[in-house]
Structure formats: C-alpha cells, structure tokens
Amino acid sequence: MIKILLIFITLIFSSNIYADPRLEADIKKLSKKNAFINSKGKEYKLDENIDKSKILLIVWSHGQLDGWGQKTENCKASWNKVPPILKNIEKTNINGLEIRLYRVCSGVRGLRQKELDIYNDNYNTDIGMESIFQFKDKSGVRLIDKETYVRKPMVIKMKVNELLSQGFKNIVLAGHSAGAWDSINIIANNSNLVDGVIAFNPARHGKYAKALKKNDVNKWWSQEREYKISLLNLNNLKQPILAYSHDGDDFSNPTTLSFLSKLDLVNFIDYSSSDCEGQIMTGGDHGISIDKCFGNKVSRQNEIIDYLKSINF
Fold first, then answer.
1. Hey, what domains does the chain have and what are their CATH numbers?
2. How much is the pLDDT for 41?
3. DSSP string, the chain
4. What residues pair up with 136 in beta bridges, in sequence order?
5. If pLDDT is split at 50, 70 and 90, which confidence band does 73 have?
6. Which of 8-17, 32-41, 68-77 has the lowest mean pLDDT?
7. Residue 56 forms beta bridges with which residues?
8. Strand 93-94 relative to strand 55-61, pairing
9. How far apart are CA 121 and CA 124, in angstroms?
10. Model's pTM, two decimal places?
C-alpha cells in the first residue's frame, strides 16, 4: 500500500518535471536507452509472462562525466555500462528471487551556462549556499533545484515507480560515483520505495578527495559538499546499504565518506588493499569496482550476494 501511494505521488510530481521543456526533451531522449541487461551486457526484452514478484531487480545508475551537467550523459559509454561485478551475478537465486539487471539512463542536463554565471557572480562564502537560494528561472524554479544532483535522483525515482507499477516488487538500486550517491539519496529520502543500495565509490563533488590530501579545498567547495550531504537525509535511513571505497580514489575515499561509514545500516567496505589496478577509461582507482578484475573475483561477488540475502524483501 505504501509503495502504491509513492507511485501516485510521483506521478503527480512528474507532471511538474515535464513543465520544463528542456528536461522533458532530455528524459524522452535518454529513456529510449533504458533496458534490461543480461550477463553478457546485451539488451533484451523481458518475457511478458514472467512472474515479476519472483524477480530481484537491480536498477543500475551510471556516474556523471560532465561535472556541471551541461551535456546529457551517454549511459552506453564504456565507463557507464552495467559493471562485470553485477553481470556476473545475474540470474543468481537470492532467497527464492532471481536477480535481473536494469539500466536506467538518468543523465539529464542541469544548469545552463548563464545560470551558472549567476551562481558565480552572487555566491557569498560568508553566507554559504543560502546566498544563491533566492535565484530562480523564468518559470519560478529555484536554480539550485535544477542542479543534476537534484534532477538525476528524480529521474531514477520516476523510473523505479514505473517499474513498481509494472509489477516489480523487489528492487535494489546500484550505481557508481554520482549514480551511487544518487541511489543513496533516493533510499534515504524514500525509505519504502526500494529495498537496498549497492554503492560503488559514491561521489558528487569532483576530485574532492585528491584536493583534500593536498590541502587545496576552498570554502565554497566545502560548503557545497556539506549541502549535498545534508540532502541525503541519512538520519532517515531505514534500509541497509552496501558501499565500496578506495583510498586511491581522487573523488571520494574512506576519509571523505566517514559520514557514511559510521552509520549502523551501512556495510562499508574499504577495498584499498585490492590487487586490482585502476584503468584510465574508468577514472583510475575511482573505477576499480566497475572493472573486470574486481568483478571477476568470486569473493567480491559473494559480498554482494550475502548483502542481498540479508535484505528482508
């Protein structure tokens, strides 16, 4: 009943999203690439007669290459594809449920350049993020609510509600980088919507970890990061999260994610000692968890399988 109510609320909310023609165009374009993905990484259509209540659907969300979100993201790019670690457990039985994978393409655009210019011209570090809350577009939408860290979770949530309306009952979000961060955002702010989150190297504030190590974080950067953390509303978290992090990650590492690792409901895995090496195409150490070396390790697959078995679906 609670999930049905959430679907209804989201349908009402989605009508407001589509009031923005630019966002509507992005969603229409990107949704054509949403698809079920098999163990080979190929798209397929799910059998219409399959019992969806017997499926554990892992919904994959990719990261964000364009930091300011002024271009739509290509979810089919090599660094955004469903990773080997998940493909290798496709169709595994979890307490009577069969794992299936679904790719959601959520990389909508955020602020326009002229809107970013308003930020730059008016941001006051003595006041913080509140100094730009007042600025709105011609439709009356706050510019800060057009940021990709606000809009992308909305798009993912809309797709999850659509999947629920189609009969899927057991949904776990999974993502890398911004996709992992956004998945955490969704589960913490909508506790009855999904059953869990697998977060690979969650990050949402550029190469913050690298800058922190060099003592090169300015006040604005720190304030924006704290604001994004506040939007996660982690005090509301009700479902367990499995999170991965690596100390060599330039974007986020166990130190910058300490606000997450300290939570009782978060199984936080520091895999800094992994013998897998980062690849340039997936962001160095930031992308180890989505590379073949990591995904082909049975011990890593079992970590995820054990986590899924622990969830009360």
1. 2-110+147-310 (3.40.50.1820)
2. 97
3. -HHHHHHHHHHHHHHHHTTSHHHHHHHHHHHTT-EEE-TTS-EEPPPTTS-GGGEEEEEEE---SSTT--S---TTSTTTSPPHHHHTTTT-EETTEEEEEEEE--------HHHHHHHHHH-BTTTBGGGGTT-B-TTS-BGGGGSHHHHHHHHHHHHHHHHHHTT--EEEEEEETHHHHHHHHHHHH-TTT-SEEEEES---SSSHHHHHHTT---HHHHHHHHHHHHHT-GGG--S-EEEEE-TT-SS--TTTTHHHHTSTTEEEEE-TT-S---BGGGTBGGGGGGSHHHHT-HHHHHHHHHHHHHS--
4. 142
5. very high
6. 8-17
7. 99, 170
8. unpaired
9. 9
10. 0.94
Task: Tell me what pLDDT residue 117 has.
Answer: 96
What distance in Å separates the CA atoms of residue 30 and residue 244, rounded to the nearest whole number?
Answer: 27
Nearest one of 216, 102, 121, 233 to 159, comparing CA atoms: 102
The whole-angstrom separation of Cα 192 and Cα 70 is 32
SS3 string of 66-85? CCCCCCCCCCCCCCCCCCHH
Give the CA dihedral 210, 214, 217, 218, nearest 10 degrees.
Answer: -150
Q: For residue 242, what are its two tokens?
A: 């499995």
Instruction: Return the closest-CA partner of residue 89 out of 36, 163, 38.
Output: 38
User: What is the token pair recorded at 301?
Assistant: 């697959």
What are the structure tokens assigned to 79, written together? Answer: 């660094």
Sign of the torsion formed by the C-alpha atoms of 284, 285, 291 and 292: positive
pLDDT above 70: residue 14: no
Q: According to the model, what pLDDT value does residue 3 have?
A: 52
pLDDT of 6 strictly over 50: no
